[in-house]
Amino acid sequence: MTTLSEQERIALQRACIVEHMRGENAHDWPAVYETFIRDERASYDVVPLSTHFAGFAGVVDFYTAFDAAVPDFKLVNTAEYDVAGCSIREVTVTGTHQAEFCGVQPTGQKVKFELAAFYLFGQGAEAGKLLTERVYFDLETVLRQMRGEPNAPTGVGLAELAA
Q1: How far is 21 from 109, CA to CA, in rounded Å?
Q2: Between the CA of residue 138 and those of 17, 42, 100, 131, 160, what are the distances in Å?
Q3: Residue 9's closest CA among 120, 85, 117, 119?
Q4: CA angle at residue 73 from 122 to 157, to 5 degrees?
């Protein structure tokens, strides 16, 4: 058994996230799911909702729900940070509210918010596969935009700063 160096692990993680985000932006769910370990260790955590989607089935449930709520969502990666076993990406999410989300019925409103995603990886032969994606964002910003409030914040402009 060959032990990977820290740099080799980080390279595997980065390649996984590139494919993961490519799949998300293309709404290519089989490609997204392929980036995860496909068993009960997998999970998706939405910290602002205090929600843990357990197991690979939970990962699928999360994407099914979010894709229904914002079916045209796109991600722009604005920053990345990596250590062996964990990668963090700051992204700007844009899209249109088309189905119920957190009790807000579909409004057709545009949303734009910043999000930090923590990607936790397996070890050994699974070093290039996701165990968990854990996301942090300002839920109130998203809900105010979905409700169409006139002064709803849109973040600090990370996508524009990164351009």
Answers
A1: 23
A2: 22, 24, 18, 24, 18
A3: 85
A4: 90
Average of per-residue pLDDT values in the chain = 96
Categorize the per-residue pLDDT at 1 as very low, low, confident or very high, splitting at 50, 70 and 90: low
Q: What is the pLDDT of residue 143?
A: 97
Residues contacting 112, CB < 8 A, separation 6+: 92, 93, 94, 145, 154, 155
- Tell me, yes or no, if the pTM score tops 0.90: yes
DSSP secondary structure letters along the chain: -PPPPHHHHHHHHHHHHHHHHHHHHHT-HHHHHHTB--STT-EEEEGGGTEEEEHHHHHHHHHHHHHHHSTT-EEEEEEEEEETTEEEEEEEEEEE--S-BTTBPP---EEEEEEEEEEEE--GGGTTSEEEEEEEE-HHHHHHHHHT-TT----S-HHHHH-
